[in-house]
Amino acid sequence: MRVLFFGDIVGEPGLRALERELPALLERLRPDFVVANGENLDLTLPEQGRAGMTLASLERLFQIGVDAVTGGNHSFDPPDLEEVLGHPRVLRPLNHSPLAPGRGSLLLEKGGKRLLVVNVAGRSALPRAVEEPLPALERLLAEGEGVPVLVDFHSESVFEKMAAAYALDGRIAALLGTHTHVPTADARILPRGTAYVSDVGMVGAEGGLQGYNPAFLVAAFRLRLPPKGLRLAYAEGPARVSYVFLELEGARAKAIVHASFVEEAFY
User: How far apart are CA 75 and CA 244, in angstroms?
Assistant: First the structure.
C-alpha cells in the first residue's frame, strides 16, 4: 500500500501550490491514499489570529484527490466548527473532549485496501486537550481494527512525538509529526516497522513566519494578546511543498521518503 501525506497546508498560497503540484505527484507516486493536515487552510477570525478550515477549501482538496484531512489546535477556531468538523472526511484530535464535535479517527477504504487515519495533539499544541495523546492512542488500538494505522501527531515537542512513536513501534504503520511547519531531517523506520518523522513541514508561502506575514504574530508574541489594528495574513513568495510518501507492507512500513521543496519563483 502507498500513502502520501502532506504537512500543514497554510491558506490560499498553500492550497494553490497543492493544486499545482498534486496531479504530477499522483501520476509519479500512484498512492492508494492521500491525507493532508488542513488546520491552517483558512483565516476564520484573522483579527484574533484564528485559522481553521472552511467547507469551500475542504471541497477544493477533495476535488484534487485528497482522501482525508487532519487537524490540530486550530480545528476548533472556526465559528461554524460543528459543520466543518461534522464533515465525514475531516478529523480533529482524538484526545480532545469526546463531547466536542467531530471525530479523531477515520477508516479509509478504496480498491480493496484499508487505512485507519488517526489524529492526536500534544499538550504543547493543545493545552486544553482532556487526555494525554498516548493513552488515547493505546485505547483506540486496543479496540483492534486490524488494519494499518497512520497517526498525525500534532505537537510542538519532538520528544513527545518520538516517545509516542517508540511506545507504539510495530503497532502502527506510521507516526508523522505536524504543527511546527518546519520539516525535520529525521525520517526513519523504527526497529519494529513504524515509519516516523518529527515534522513533515508545511505547504505554504516561504517568505514569512510559518507561512504567515510576521507582523501580527510578532506583535502577539510581544503582547501575549491579539494586537489591536492588525490582522493575521498569509506570507508572500514562492511556496514550500512538504510531504511524506510511505510504502506499507501489511501493518508496517517498508519505506519512507520525506521531501520538502520550494516551487519556482515564477509561480
Answer: 22
